[in-house]
Each structure stands twice: as structure tokens, then as C-alpha cells.
């Protein structure tokens, strides 16, 4: 194989990837002094990403909802607070930076999830542990090398030989009746007999 038989094709492909798992603790202060925590869940996660050199910066936010009792367990409420975050995901290039136009796509592997929610020692705040995991991919131009066959060639196809023969006359139709089980005059039968 010589270099004359090689061609370079410019195409788009994933040229870099990065993944980051983050654990954080958020401190929330509800309007009422909590007596106990009845539940905690996280919803409404949104994010956007931008590439800076060999890093992808992901900016996002989510809502933490804490269902809690107060006034000596005589009442319950749900306290909601929006939390913003910024994660820097390190990108790992397989072949080095392309230097051209690159697009960044971020996929959420683990949505923000509450792993623990407790009342702090002061008794007036919540301490909520949150974990999340993100995957960043960079799509850019890259080159692939293909071999070009120098001569024309015929592809090899495996198939069964098929032959047919026909006669000049119309025949008596017996072959047709034999294949399809029909009898002469079937089409003239009254449809009410079916």
C-alpha cells in the first residue's frame, strides 16, 4: 500500500470527553424553627455549558424542597430554595485539540439527588447533602484515512442462479389453476354463495 492509495476525509466526531461527580452541602434557613424533617427532594434541574480551553464550565440550578414539621410538631410546611452551581469539567483529548470550531454537549449522568438532610446544631437550619454527576463531550473536526482501491473491481455477491422459460402459446391455464387452486369459472359465481 502506497500513499497514493490513501485519502483523508474530514468529518466531525467526539474529540474530547470529561466527567465529574460532585458532592456538596447546602445550608437552608426556613422561616419557622424546624422540629423534624419529613422528606427532602430536588426538582427543576437546568444547566448550560461553555468551553474554556481544556475545561468545560457547567452552570446550573435546581430547587431543593424540604418537608418539615414546626411549632413542636403541630404544623407542617414545605420550604423551597433555588440553588445555583458552577462545575468545571476537565476535558481529555484523544488526539490533541483540533483548533477549529468545536461544540460542547453536556449529559447528566446523575441528576442532583439528596443523600442526607438534617437539622443543624443551632436548630434553625437544614443541612442538605447533594450529589450529581455530569458528562461533557466536545464535537469537532477530525480526519480519518481510508484506502482507495487502485483498479476497478467487481463485488462478490452470493446468490442462487435463477432461470425461466416461456412458450409462444397461451397454454390452457392448467399451470395457473395448479398453482393457485382456482377453477375455471370461479369468477362467474354468484357472490351470495360465499
Automatic annotation (TrEMBL):
Any matching Pfam family: CotE
Ranges for region Disordered: 156-194
Domain of life (superkingdom): Bacteria
Keyword vocabulary terms for this entry: Capsid protein, Virion
Biased composition (Basic and acidic residues): 172-194
InterPro entries assigned to the protein according to its UniProt record, in alphabetical order: Spore_coat_CotE (IPR018901)
Stated name of the protein: Spore coat protein E
Source organism of the structure: Bhargavaea cecembensis DSE10
Amino acid at each position: 500500500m502506497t500513499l497514493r492509495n490513501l485519502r483523508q476525509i474530514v468529518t466531525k466526531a467526539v474529540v474530547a470527553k470529561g466527567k465529574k461527580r460532585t458532592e456538596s452541602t447546602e445550608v437552608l434557613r426556613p422561616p419557622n424553627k424546624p422540629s423534624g424533617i419529613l422528606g427532602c427532594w430536588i426538582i427543576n434541574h437546568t444547566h448550560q455549558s461553555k468551553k474554556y480551553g481544556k475545561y468545560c464550565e457547567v452552570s446550573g440550578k435546581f430547587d431543593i424542597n424540604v418537608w418539615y414539621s414546626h411549632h413542636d410538631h403541630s404544623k407542617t410546611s414545605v420550604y423551597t430554595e433555588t440553588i445555583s452551581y458552577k462545575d468545571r469539567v476537565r476535558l481529555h483529548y484523544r488526539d490533541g485539540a483540533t483548533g477549529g470550531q468545536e461544540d460542547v454537549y453536556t449529559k447528566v449522568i446523575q441528576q442532583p439527588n439528596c443523600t442526607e438532610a438534617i437539622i443543624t446544631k443551632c436548630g434553625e437550619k437544614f443541612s442538605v447533602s447533594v450529589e450529581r454527576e455530569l458528562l461533557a463531550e466536545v464535537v469537532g473536526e477530525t480526519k480519518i484515512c481510508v484506502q482507495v482501491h487502485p483498479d476497478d473491481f467487481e463485488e462478490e455477491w452470493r446468490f442462487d442462479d435463477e432461470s425461466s422459460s416461456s412458450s409462444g402459446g397461451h397454454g390452457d391455464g392448467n399451470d395457473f389453476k395448479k398453482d393457485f387452486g382456482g377453477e375455471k369459472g370461479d369468477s362467474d359465481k354468484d357472490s351470495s354463495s360465499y
